[in-house]
Amino acid sequence: MIDLPKKEVDVLVIGSGAAGAISAWDSAVKGLDVSMIGVGTPATEMSSGCIRFNDDRSVPEGLGLDRGDLEDAFSRAERFLIDEMKTSGLKMEGARRDQGRYYRCHGTIVPENIVQGPTSSGGLDRIEGERICVIGFEDRTEFDHRLFAKALAQRSDLRVEHIAVGTTNGVLRNSSVDDLLDMFVDAAGSASGEVVFVPPFISLKDIDRWEELEKRSGRKFAEPVMDLGMPGARLRDALISSASRAGVSITNGASIVGMSISKGSLNEVTVRSGHRLQHIECGAAVFCGGGLVGGGLGVSGKDVIDPLGLFDVRYLREGDGIDILARASSGGIRTGPGLEAIVDGEKVRNLFVAGASLPGMNIVEGNGIGDAMATALLASKAATEASR
Ligand SMILES: Cc1cc2nc3c(=O)[nH]c(=O)nc-3n(C[C@H](O)[C@H](O)[C@H](O)COP(=O)(O)OP(=O)(O)OC[C@H]3O[C@@H](n4cnc5c(N)ncnc54)[C@H](O)[C@@H]3O)c2cc1C
């Protein structure tokens, strides 16, 4: 093992998904020296990048968060999504639906909305035109256009056609944006549909080319909501870009493997990257390691475990008759009312937890990215104060 020189930072953020990135950004824009360290693919990147903010600003009950603070954090997270993401090149659009607001990347459409028509705020989900064309790849590796077209046709009186392009496995992954653009423009030319659905294929750096696609084909393009694909990756790239612009030092591919805590205070963390070890002294830290999918938590039997073997774990739901998934998804790292971590029953004054690592914030229970971002802003505020 090679030891790297020791480092000092004001705030260390562990995990670089939605919670980590907004938390690091928030502390950095307040002038602090911030490092963010993450490993693996965060759930944020696997998501469809559609984000819900409930009107009642609910996060799982039992976290004991102050309502006023929570209200403020949700509003700031929403503003961040609209304003800050735009400066990172990602245009997020919002619509009112049910008891909340939904945000998604320009062009991403939820199929139900095509069928149900415009929402009360209008605009976003309205598909102008009665004919829709769905383009996909013959091998269906990324997006089953036939199934999507069938579902649309069955649930609406829209006229839906589908066109297959390419037959090579992994064509979406292996083709350049120019190739795909040409392919989709050609295919759209032979379609009668006014609106053309394509699998999400444009990354954040090429996002402006959406307009080119529409101009060249004279059609309106849309992409279906899709997990494990481009929309989540675009969101993650935009979040990382914002954190980086704010001055956050970002290390990917490194893990926090240990924390030294004494007398209720975090003094140092140990970071491992391949054969290299580094100790980082920090004024405060925010753990945004994610939930059961993101890697911040694991499952053993029907219990949630923290892979660092450090934090106390608690469940929002207890008792017999609760199935394994429900129990596991209601568990997470125990925190005090200010999101400070509890270790061996004691509050750690300068270590905070946010996002899907919190009890009940796993996808099955929580609202996903919206909740993760709001709690991260609460944690970054506390960490910023604790580090001074
Ligand atoms: C397939 C899928 C689709 C989803 N779709 C949606 C959706 O459309 N809308 C929505 O709101 N929510 C969605 N969710 C849920 C949402 O993605 C998560 O709730 C949210 O992204 C959690 O963000 P986070 O920052 O807390 O964790 P994550 O995004 O998981 O980030 C945590 C990161 O921390 C890293 N990490 C963990 N431990 C360490 C360590 N010791 N050292 C360094 N790094 C560490 C992890 O490897 C990971 O990269 C979806 C989830 C999945 C899996």
Describe this structure in words.
There is one protein chain. This protein is an alpha/beta fold. The strands form 5 sheets. Strands 1, 2, 3, 12, 13, 14, 15, 20 and 21 form a 9-stranded mixed β-sheet that branches. A 5-stranded parallel β-sheet has the order 7-11-10-8-9, with helices on both faces. A hairpin with a 2-residue loop joins β16 and β17 (303-305). It has helices at residues 18-29, 43-46, 67-87, 111-116, 145-154, 171-174, 177-189, 209-217, 230-245, 324-329, 369-386; strands at residues 2-3, 7-14, 34-38, 51-54, 92-97, 100-105, 108-109, 131-137, 159-165, 195-197, 220-224, 249-252, 255-262, 265-273, 276-287, 298-300, 303-305, 313-315, 331-333, 340-343, 346-353. The model is unreliable at 116-124 (pLDDT under 50). The site of flavin-adenine dinucleotide has 39 residues, from α1, β3, α2, β4 and β13.
Please identify the top-level CATH class of the largest domain. Answer: Alpha Beta
Structural class: alpha/beta
Instruction: Report the CATH architecture of the largest domain.
Output: 3-Layer(bba) Sandwich
Nearest-angstrom radius of gyration?
A: 22 Å
Question: CATH homologous superfamily of the largest domain, by name?
Answer: FAD/NAD(P)-binding domain
Bound compounds: flavin-adenine dinucleotide
Question: Overall pLDDT, averaged?
Answer: 87
